[in-house]
Prior knowledge:
mainly alpha
Amino acid sequence: MNRDRRFRVSPFDMRTARPLPAVRVRRFAFTLALAGVLVAGCGSTESPPASATPVQLDTFEPSAAATTALADSLAAFEGHLRDATGREGELVRALAAASTGDPARMRSAIAQMHTWIDGEQAWLAAHAPLACFAAADAKFREVVASMTSAAEGFTALVAHSPGPSDDATGAAAGRALQDAARALADTATLAKTARTSCR
């Protein structure tokens, strides 16, 4: 006899990555994970670097044109980062909306994640970082890597749900999504710190 197999994910505690009793909040499959992502995006954990050694009078000073080029490159990076962060937030909301729906809705949300990932990888490949904001660029690459891991986890979840591996797979995907949100906040902090060295 055929049964309606709607997409289900067992909820889990984002602090311990252990499954919660399915009877409690089964319909809110990703709520805890996604709420954690939104909280993680509210602040940065990256501390600004210590002050550099004072510049000596005979230190080489870059030309005005070179200084402008540095500032313009960082400004372009920060502008793209703001855009990518906004679109990442839309992805989180799309995942939340799809988490209680059927597999087709979830697959659509995951496809949006892959579009975001592909776009950011292409942008990074076309925009080599300058030394003054290389740390911010490296952190942003961590964001893309975490988003890739999350997308792969959610894809596996859809393919095998419902199944005994749902709790572990969902927990890993949720953690990767949280990691991406935290890294985005850290990237913004590093880019802001780089303004001094890029001028």
